[in-house]
Structures are given as C-alpha cells and as structure tokens.
Design a protein that fits this description.
2 domains, transmembrane, DUF3810, two-stranded antiparallel sheet, membrane, DUF3810 domain-containing protein, three-stranded mixed sheet, transmembrane helix
Length: 407
C-alpha cells in the first residue's frame, strides 16, 4: 500500500509540473505577443535556427513525412477503436453467458459469505495517475516545441514593417485601383502564356502535361532568395514543397496546403487547377520562413510569384490576388466591381469559373467541419479573425500597389 501511495505521489507531482508547463506556455504566448520587439529580437532567431535545422534535413526527403505521420496516427486510432470494440463485445458476451465460478475463501468467522469472482485471471492495470501524467507531459512537450519552433512568433505582424508598407485605412477608390492593377497584370500574363503555347491554365495538375511541380518549386525558391536580398524577413532556407498523395481526399476538407513546424514541410494539395498552384506553394513556403499570419503568408506568396521570371508563376500571383480583390470590391461597391470585371480578359474569367467549379465540387459536411477546426486553430494561435484572416491580404495588396505608383 505504501509503495502504491509513493508511486501515485510521483505521478501527481509529474502531472502538476506538466500542468504548470502548459500554463507557462499560455503565459509566454501572451507576453511575447505583447512585446513584439523583444520577441523578434530574441525569440525569432531561435525559432529560425530550429526550423532551419529541421528543413535542412526534411528537404532531402522526397515525400511528405507529415502525410505519413498523419496516416500512421489515423491507423493507430482505428486499430485502438477496433480493439476496444472487440474487447467490449467479448466482455458483454462473457457476462451474458454467465461464465462465473464461485470461489470459497477460507473464512473462520461465523456467517461468512462466499465471494464471487470472474473466471478470467485478473489483469494488471496501469495506474490511472500514470496515464494522466503521461498525457499531460506529452501535451506540455508538444506545446513547448510548437511554441519555440513557430507558435511564439506566429501572431506577430512583420511583413508591413519588413518591406516598408504603410498600413493605413483605404477607401473603395484605392481598392478599385488595386483591383484594376491586378486585372491588367493578370490579363498581360494570361495573354503571354497563350503566346508561349501554354494553354492548360485551368487544367487540373494531375491532368496537365505542361506544368512541372519540381520546376515551379525551384523557381519559387530562387524568387524567395532574390526577395531575401531586398528584405531580411525573407532570408533563410524555405521548405521544399511536397505533393500530398492523398490530395483528392484532402480536397474534401478545403485544405489547399499546410505547413507544420514539427516536420518543417510545405505540404501541397495538388488536386488544383494549374494556375492556382504556384500561389499555394509560395504561401506555404512563406510559412516556412516564419511568416506566421495567414494574410502575410498569402501576400508573401504573391510577392514571390510576381517576383519570379516564370510567366505561369507570375500569372498565379496576379490572378489569385485579383480574385481576393474582386471579392472585397464587390462587397464594397458592386458597380465598381462590374466595371473592373468588364476589363478582365475572357481567359482569366474562364480560369476563375473552372476554379470555382472545382472548389464547389468538394463542399459539404467534411468541408464545413474542417473550416470550423481551421478557424478555431487560427484563433487559438492568437489571431481573433480566424479564417477571415486570409481575406485581410487585400490590405497589404492595396498598400503594395500604392507603393508601386510614381510619387
């Protein structure tokens, strides 16, 4: 009994330490967000160092380790569920059959009753406190690794200051001019693609014989290297984009790509129209350079695309930016939206129609649940906008276009 109490006391102490670590993680997350200058000066270098080491190793692996880990976790959960159900059924069957025996213990006292016991031998159970301590320690370790490798700096805005953008409120006229700018450049890129003989912009990647995933990844890597020469926030080793083998299944969740600091991989859903994929790849690569906020990663992806020397990659950046801008412009002033729409090349509009058709094909319960989980995940990481944060890329696009105009 004393040994059991000592053992429980040990696990209680471990559980308390784990809970304290989880609370400390939450406190540090708030403190680092409140003091961004300190965080960028002292935490960001550590985060970049850890991520660089992980990316350096993972870039040599030709497949998505993230996908393998997720598959193994799902398989483990499925096996545990099956084992649990089988165990429950066996237990119920034994009870229904009444397979019990009576064991009479040697008892000297008068009126003693025999004790009833199950036929099967008693199995040694893992102490409950040990299981609780194991779970809490695992959670604490995962949280702290996530924090130091990405989470502590995730919600700190760095792009506007990093490239010298003025983040001032804008009116619908500026939004109109930005949308028109994107339309003009998307039109020019689309026409240039036709001249170059590239006709499959709206084709799905798996059906295209003109799109080269690895070549596009190399183009974007070079583009980020070039951006890094101008802006320090883009310096470093970007993650190598990796195709997800289960892309079509993942499309039902509405996920276009994902970056996890635990593996340092830019995982890409390639079940996508060709013209949209370079922007997605560049977005996830931006996350790997510790651009945490979704709108900033989207804008960084835009910069990487339009800064490249490849026409398709440039078109992807301008076209997806145009899509974001037109959505906001329609909400602000439908008349201005239709004015811009009339000036968009028919080929671009056709690409948008095919993109919308492809996305809508997968909408349903799974997509809605996934969106809710993603929304909650982003909010937990400190961005109160949740999935609405993606649409805030337009703020940065407006500032960038204003910066391009002659003074």
């Amino acid at each position: 009994m004393k040994a059991k109490l000592r053992e429980n006391r040990k696990y209680i102490i471990l559980s308390a330490v784990a809970v304290a670590a989880i609370v400390l993680f939450a406190v540090l997350s708030k403190v680092f967000a409140l003091y961004p200058d300190f965080t960028l000066a002292y935490v960001m270098p550590v985060t970049k160092g850890i991520l660089t080491a992980i990316k350096w190793v993972m870039n040599f692996v030709p497949f998505s380790v993230t996908e393998v880990v997720i598959a193994l976790m799902l398989a483990y959960l499925a096996v545990m569920l099956i084992v649990g159900v089988i165990g429950l059924i066996r237990k119920l069957v034994r009870r229904l059959r009444g397979r019990y025996r009576v064991t009479v213990r040697a008892m000297r006292r008068e009126g003693a009753e025999p004790a009833y016991a199950a036929e099967e031998p008693e199995q040694k159970k893992t102490p409950l406190m040990k299981e609780i301590a194991t779970v809490l320690i695992t959670i604490a370790a995962v949280l702290f690794f996530f924090g130091i490798s990405f989470g502590f700096v995730y919600n700190i805005p760095i792009v506007a200051d990093g490239i010298g953008l003025e983040s001032e409120p804008y009116d619908k006229q500026l939004l109109y001019e930005t949308t028109l700018y994107m339309a003009e450049h998307a039109n020019a890129c689309r026409r240039r693609l036709v001249e170059e003989g590239f006709t499959g912009t709206a084709e799905l990647v798996r059906q295209s014989d003109q799109f080269d995933f690895n070549e596009t990844a190399a183009i974007l890597k070079e583009s980020y290297r070039s951006l890094g020469e101008q802006y320090s926030i883009y310096r470093g080793l970007p993650a190598k984009p990796k195709r997800l083998l289960t892309s079509e299944a993942i499309s039902y969740t509405g996920i276009a790509g994902m970056f996890l600091p635990f593996t340092g991989e830019a995982n890409i859903n390639v079940d996508s129209p060709v013209f949209a994929l370079p922007q997605t790849m560049a977005h996830e690569m931006a996350h790997s350079l510790v651009i945490g906020r979704e709108n900033e990663a989207d804008f960084s992806g835009f910069l990487a695309c339009v800064n490249s020397t490849d026409t398709l990659t440039q078109y992807s950046g301008y076209a997806m930016a145009l899509l974001s801008c037109t959505n906001d412009l329609y909400a602000a002033d439908p008349e201005l939206y239709y004015d811009v729409r009339e000036q968009i090349d028919p080929g671009v509009l056709q690409d948008f129609a095919e993109y919308s058709k492809h996305v809508n094909k997968y909408k349903g319960i799974v997509n809605n649940v996934s969106a809710s989980i993603n929304d909650l995940s982003i909010k937990i990481r400190g961005d109160e906008l949740g999935i609405q944060a993606y649409s805030k890329v337009v703020d940065l696009l407006v500032g960038w276009v204003a910066q391009q105009q002659p003074q």
